[in-house]
Amino acid sequence: GNSVTQMEGPVTLSEEAFLTINCTYTATGYPSLFWYVQYPGEGLQLLLKATKADDKGSNKGFEATYRKETTSFHLEKGSVQVSDSAVYFCALSVLYNNNDMRFGAGTRLTVKP
Amino acid sequence: ETGVTQSPTHLIKTRGQQVTLRCSSQSGHNTVSWYQQALGQGPQFIFQYYREEENGRGNFPPRFSGLQFPNYSSELNVNALELDDSALYLCASSGGDLGAEAFFGQGTRLTVV
Fold first, then answer.
1. What mean pLDDT value characterizes chain B?
2. DSSP assignment of chain A, as one string?
3. What is the distance in angstroms between the Cα of A78 and the nearest Cα belonging to chain B?
4. Above pLDDT 70, what percent of chain B?
5. Strand, coil or helix: what is B1?
6. E strands within B1-113?
7. Is B21 in CB contact (< 8 Å) with chain A?
8. What's the rounded Cα separation, in Å, for the pair A8 and A65?
9. Is the backbone of residue B9 left (phi > 0), alpha (psi -120 to 50) or beta?
């Protein structure tokens, strides 16, 4: 079946450190891939997405490249800020209309000043 | 353009009771998906409604049911509540294109005692 496995947290970094959160997927067909972020007490916000192999999604300094050969979509940021502290979810969808979006378990990131 | 709004924000119910959660989709969106997010887990797909018809369902029992109205707002109904139904219930709306962003509401925190 379709599933997402992401790096378990929690992850604690100092401000300006480099961030990588690993995400690998299993899917039938050609999935679209997403990273969502959830701040405390809030719903999920789309951070970035990629809809085909070799696409790079980017937003707010975060990047992720859709790697079909390694079935991965790792999230990276060169210099994290305290305000990046949140839970990050990798997700995929393979059907029209984003039906049945599958999420990873989430990775909690804490950035310390 | 209004965002996705859910009501109520918090709810406490007794085991065996029934509950109705509501979601107003973002303006112009005809698709609403519901997710259950248990504490420390990623969201799990419950079902999706597209133009008032159920358009896919996850691995949830029939006591989870839903509706979508002509204005594309939606309800999630859960009968015979169980303790394990305690979770954050998230609603997401999208415009229907493959790879289109799903916009999430802030969720309803349901506690079953």
1. 91
2. --EEEE--S-EEEETT--EEE-EEEE-SS--EEEEEEE-TTS-EEEEEEE-STT-EEEETTEEEE-BTTTTB--EEESS--GGG-EEEEEEEE-SGGGTT-EE---EEEEEE-
3. 25
4. 94
5. coil
6. 5-7, 10-13, 19-24, 31-37, 44-50, 53-57, 64-68, 74-78, 87-94, 103-104, 108-112
7. no
8. 20
9. alpha
Alpha-carbon distance B5 to nearest alpha carbon in chain A (angstroms): 10
Note whether B74 contacts A: Cβ–Cβ < 8 A. Answer: no
For B40-86, the pLDDT digits (tens) are 889 999 999 988 999 889 999 999 999 999 988 999 999 999 999 99
Supply the mean pLDDT for chain A. Answer: 92
Written as one letter, the residue type at B92 is: A
Q: What is the mean pLDDT of residues A21-37?
A: 92
Listed as own residue / partner, the contacts of B58-64 with beta carbons closer than 8 Å and 24 or more positions apart are: B58/A100, B60/B36
Q: Render pLDDT for A55-98 as a digit per residue (tens, 0 to 9).
A: 999 999 999 999 999 999 999 999 999 999 999 999 998 766 55
What are phi and psi for residue A59, nearest 5 degrees?
-170, 135
